[in-house]
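Collaboration report, partner site 2.

Our partner group contributed sequences for two proteins of shared interest, and the home lab folded both. The records are reproduced in the order in which they were received, starting with the first partner submission.
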Amino acid sequence: MKELSDFEHKGWIKFKFDQRVAHWANAANSKITSKLKNKEIFDNNLTCQGTWFVGVDALENDTNGALGEISLSGPFESLMKRTEARGLHAAQVSIIFEGYPKPRDQESESSFNYRLKRDAAHVDGLIADFPGGPRKLKEPHAYVLGIPLNQAPKGASPVVVWEGSHHLISKAFNSLFLNQDPEKWKDLDVREVYMQTRKSIFEKCKRRVLYANLGESYMIHRLCLHGISPWDFEIKNFNEGRKIAYFRPELQHLADWPKLS
């Protein structure tokens, strides 16, 4: 299957327009727009001085991704099924507004510069409880599925990926976890290995902008370094913000996490 081959080689794949995806996205956009009329919900999810609505677990879908009678279906289904993952969580709805990024509350200058100049590039699931603290594999995701919920301009903070970076992450973490009991992986501080590998990725891997229209979608390998690009200052008055729903279900088997397949 060519799409599987491309995905495993590059670490990402973008799917063409599909009416089923557009139908689901329009329904999701309607639901999140209605939900955000609640000022408390909206304000509690805002960060980066009002330029990013984080929106974790913001969408009330079922474990198959359905919104009521509207099922989540599309060209990504075959890749979703090839990985043994748990049921889908309530989707994150990430909304970026004009001016992103601005510093988060108590964000250090170095952290903000990384957000600004390196797109806050990260591998999902490797989490530090506080800045500069130990970083651990707390959320072993199966993949990242992104679905735009509205038609946004190309420069409205699209996602970026470092193509092929999952190969370097896999090699580094397979080496780190070698002869370690998978049950203990979540207790290991991976910060040093992660930062060294990330630096190597910036030197060796091509940064790709992953812009998608309404009705399109994309999947990112769980080990692929990715982030959010700054808002193009030439884009003005797009007040609704660019909206993307993300699914990151966790793997059923932790030992699969550092694998490329």
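Second partner submission, folded after the first:
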Amino acid sequence: MPHISRKKIPFSISPALRSYLVKYGREIRLPIEYKDLLRYEAEVVLYDKYKQDTLWVSVQYPQSDIDYLYSGLKEIYAIMMADGDMSVMEHLYVDRIDLCLYGNTQPFRIRIRNRINDNYDYYYIKNADASRVIGLELEHLLSPNRMNYRVFNQTLIEEHIAGIPGKEFIKNYIEKERVENHLRLAKEFVKFNERCFVRLLGDMHSSNFVVDITPDFEDVHYRIRAIDFDQQCYEPRRSVYFPKYYKQNLPFINIGIQNITPETSRQYQKEERSMIARRIRYAHEELDDLLIAMKGSILSKEEYIIELRKDLFDYYNDPQYLKCRNMGEVVELGLSNLVNRGDSV
């Protein structure tokens, strides 16, 4: 298994990245910040339907803070889902605020419920780490997925990404032989693996992605979506950026081995690289600005950059990697080569 730093260093949003966020409407004034939610006075452990500890706790606040907090949290939901139109929030209320005490970021999860039909939705409030923000934006520009998030000062708001957590998908679908189309799942994992490596998104083991199942008129489609972007272009070894090297993902890998040949796998890799190149051309202005912001930001340790550029030089046999001075230049070179040369896989 690739070695991951147990506690990644958080990086502040640089002025260059802040300018990018303002230009493209990602920076917006919010009524509640992450620090406001830290004033809880009690917590209750949350268990799933199987009575297993979820590693989340439900937090409770002083009565004097509830009106202010809940009103602000509803307004944030309106900003995310309805461009700030509070009139559509009439029947919604804050049902629960959860905190994840496990991991580096300790995010809050807000559950919004509809009084009329009892339906509910989630969004997340986190500390605004530069790596995560850039990871979200690269996902938005280079993947088939659109990402809904906003930043204000040191606070990051993220829309919930729906899907079956990879770990649960293994347990409840793969192990119970409920996968309806093994070939399509194998193909999607190959494409997901390629997307992560091309843009250098690390730590994509089964707890950090979800599987979205979409029924078709004859069959089903699968899409694997990253949900954790903390390890965006941070680690020093290229193996960290390949989901196929994580032992937690072995059930997905085995499905691929059983259903597709190495030649077919390379074909799927080339298809995905071609799609990424097309997205780069479509979003070239935003991507160019983002790469400028990345090159003006600290995103990793100096020794990690040196080690990764040497690793990628060995992988691609491209001496230009040895000239890269920061992670922004490493990502820029990889994307440029993908468009201009169609780097082989």
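Feedback sent to the partner group on the second submission included the following. The radius of gyration is 21 Å. Strands lie at 42-47, 53-60, 92-100, 108-114, 120-127, 149-152, 155-159, 164-165, 209-215, 220-226.
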